């Protein structure tokens, strides 16, 4: 029997034409979903009420329910992988999930509705293939050790989904049909999205657990170019809380950092250019949203050092200048701004110059401290501030700097617990240093894949401590892949994220006044097909004239000049109308828009 606040951890799923039954193994009661009325309730009957004809399979947990055009769908975890333990409690990764239609049939749908429903189902299925969802049946993964310690015993006895930090619960919307019924609380399993690595390590004959947990916020979530900056609620794109935990013989230490998009109203929509210019809004109230963001940040984390790693020249400069001006205008004593032009300072692979930045931050890192809890429950120290790091994407440069701050924090913790003796350095322990670098590089890759669609750049430095030619080549390949995905695939990804989180949802609509579906393909004008066809023809003719003649006469040279000019003119025209060719989200033209059932 799970203790108070814990969630059932093993079930049998029974599906019959009339009802879906979810049976917690070894527990009393059945969760029942009526496939006719769509009612969800707890039955105290035994499993003898399950029809013998029902299909049965084991499942590991319930992600929740979502409503699509065909009706409600149940989403369950079918496979899981044990990552390790935090505070003595198991942490799991989702490795398999199913989406199950809760209606008896799809015959009530028109052909157009069936096609749209299939598209929505594919979006949910896409999200379920993301390999970075984590959960625990008994431990609250959404909170840091310090936040958990600063709560009351009564709070820790409340249901897991109720005490979870809503910023990091990615299936909160899907659990609403269950969480609204207190008797179903032990079926409600919160999921986080991000990265977790739990490692048993040994230094000087002393064994300890070293853990890295990154929690992605579900607020203002999205893809690299379609989700930037801040919103009116003070939520920023790609906000991630990263916690480094050290556990040794009952003693615990935690060091927390955050990353997030520059907290101003700005955009950088894809337009087929390799790097679209960021645009700062001239109409929104930056100061109000900025203040709201940092009021929340200071409430959660205390003092803030804002590490801005973007370029202080070129296209990014407008953001750096506006960010610095906003900090000055706000005059908040709990905020300090630290700009470091990463690309300029580290040009020509002079990555050792990052130590200049770390040295600038050292005194504040010492002042902030870390959360330290003794094995007897005595509170030794609390962390009183965080470093909030950003670059333009909050991915590559950001992760490099965060890993360096984390190493410095870990050095202190290992000495504090007596694992390293005075004079010993983390970087001088080859096996552990290699593990440290690879875990932080894996963290970079995971967060980058979730936001940009590819692994992170500059991870050769994180993994090896130096910039390499092979690493630069890998960065080039990843950059090209990002370009393709960000321009031609991210519209679907953004829609999938919004649908999964409930930012867009299906609701019943008056059949006499059908609303147009946002999933309908937008009408393209003549340029959409004409320019690519002309470009393809021009390229084909250029190479045909270049390779086929036995000798290059004046005529063939003129032909090459003509077709080369056509390639250039058409390519420029395509870039001129770049947004027409981008795979734009179809559900987010209006943040308050919902998809209606005709």
Strand element count: 22
**What fraction of the residues are assigned to beta strands by DSSP?**
15-25%
Structure annotation, total helices: 16
> How far apart are the first and last residues' alpha carbons, in Å?
46 Å
What gyration radius follows from the Cα positions, in whole Å? Answer: 27 Å
State the secondary-structure class: alpha+beta
Give the CA-based shape.
globular
How many separate domains?
Answer: 3
Q: What would you note in describing this structure?
A:
It is a single chain. The chain has 598 residues and is α+β, with helices and mostly antiparallel strands. It has three domains: 1-112 and 143-160 and 170-185, no CATH class; 191-475, no CATH class; 506-597. Helix content is 35%, strand content 23%. It is built from 16 helices and 22 strands. Helix 1 (111-128) crosses helix 14 and helix 15 (527-547) packs antiparallel against helix 16 (554-576). It is globular, with a radius of gyration of 27 Å.
Summarize the helices and strands and which ones pair or pack.
Elements: E1 11-15, E2 19-24, E3 30-34, E4 40-43, E5 55-59, E6 61-68, E7 71-86, E8 89-101, H1 111-128, E9 133-135, H2 145-149, H3 153-156, H4 160-163, H5 176-179, E10 192-203, E11 206-216, E12 240-248, E13 251-259, E14 266-267, E15 279-280, H6 286-301, E16 303-308, H7 317-330, E17 335-339, H8 342-345, H9 354-368, E18 371-373, E19 379-381, E20 385-390, H10 396-416, H11 430-451, H12 459-464, H13 469-488, H14 490-501, E21 506-508, H15 527-547, H16 554-576, E22 595-597
Parallel strand pairs: 13-20, 16-17, 16-20, 21-22
Antiparallel strand pairs: 1-2, 1-5, 2-3, 3-4, 6-7, 7-8, 8-9, 9-10, 10-11, 11-12, 12-13, 13-18, 14-15, 18-19
Helix pairs in contact: 1-14, 10-11, 15-16
């Amino acid at each position: 029997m799970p203790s108070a606040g814990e969630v059932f951890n093993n079930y049998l799923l029974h599906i019959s034409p009339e009802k879906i039954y979810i049976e917690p193994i070894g527990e009393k009661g059945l969760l029942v979903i009526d496939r006719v009325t769509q009612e969800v309730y707890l039955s105290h009957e035994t499993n003898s009420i399950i029809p013998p004809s029902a299909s049965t399979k084991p499942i590991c947990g319930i992600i929740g329910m979502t409503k699509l055009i065909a009706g409600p769908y149940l989403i369950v975890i079918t496979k899981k992988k044990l990552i390790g333990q935090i505070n003595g409690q198991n942490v799991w990764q989702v490795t398999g999930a199913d989406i199950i239609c809760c209606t008896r049939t799809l015959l009530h749908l028109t052909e157009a509705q069936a096609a749209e429903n299939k598209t929505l189902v594919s979006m949910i299925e896409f999200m379920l293939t993301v390999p970075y969802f984590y959960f625990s049946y008994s431990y609250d993964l959404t909170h840091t050790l310090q936040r958990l310690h600063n709560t009351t015993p009564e709070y820790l006895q409340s249901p897991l989904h109720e005490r979870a930090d809503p910023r990091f619960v990615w299936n909160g919307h899907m659990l609403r049909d269950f969480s609204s019924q207190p008797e179903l609380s032990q079926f409600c399993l919160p999921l986080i999205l991000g990265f977790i690595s739990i490692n048993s390590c040994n230094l000087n004959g002393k064994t300890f657990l070293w853990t890295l947990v990154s929690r992605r916020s579900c607020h203002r979530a999205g893809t690299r170019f379609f989700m930037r900056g801040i919103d009116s609620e003070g939520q920023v794109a790609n906000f991630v809380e990263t916690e480094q935990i050290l556990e040794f013989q009952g003693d615990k230490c935690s060091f927390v950092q955050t990353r997030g998009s520059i907290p101003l109203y700005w955009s950088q929509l894809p337009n087929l250019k390799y790097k679209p210019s960021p645009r700062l809004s001239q109409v929104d109230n930056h100061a109000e949203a900025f203040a709201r963001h940092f009021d929340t940040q200071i409430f959660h984390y205390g003092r803030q050092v804002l590490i801005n790693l973007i370029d202080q020249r070129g296209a990014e400069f407008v953001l750096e200048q506006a960010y610095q001006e906003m900090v000055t205008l706000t005059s908040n004593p709990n905020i300090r701004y630290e700009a470091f032009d990463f690309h300029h300072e580290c040009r020509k692979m002079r990555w050792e110059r990052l130590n200049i930045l770390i040295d600038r931050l050292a005194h504040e890192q010492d002042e902030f401290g870390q959360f330290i809890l003794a094995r007897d429950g005595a509170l030794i120290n609390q962390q009183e501030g965080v470093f909030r790091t950003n670059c333009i994407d909050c991915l590559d440069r950001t992760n490099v700097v965060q890993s360096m701050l984390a190493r410095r924090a870990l050095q202190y913790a290992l000495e504090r617990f007596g694992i390293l003796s005075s004079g010993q350095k983390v970087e001088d322990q080859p096996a552990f240093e290699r593990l440290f670098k690879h875990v932080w590089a894996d963290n970079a890759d995971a967060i980058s894949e979730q936001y940009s669609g590819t692994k992170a750049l500059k991870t050769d430095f994180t993994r090896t401590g130096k910039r390499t030619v092979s690493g630069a080549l890998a960065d080039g390949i990843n950059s090209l892949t990002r370009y393709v995905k960000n321009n031609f695939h991210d519209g679907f990804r953004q829609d999938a994220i919004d649908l999964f989180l409930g930012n867009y949802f299906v609701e019943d609509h008056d059949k006499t006044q059908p609303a147009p579906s946002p999933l309908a393909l937008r009408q393209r004008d003549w340029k959409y097909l004409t320019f690519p066809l002309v470009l393809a023809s021009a390229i084909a003719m250029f190479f045909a004239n270049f390779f086929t003649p036995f000798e290059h006469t004046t005529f063939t040279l003129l032909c090459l000049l003509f077709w080369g000019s056509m390639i250039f003119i058409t390519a420029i025209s395509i870039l001129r109308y770049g947004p027409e060719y981008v795979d734009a989200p179809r559900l987010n033209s209006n943040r308050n828009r919902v998809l209606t059932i005709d």
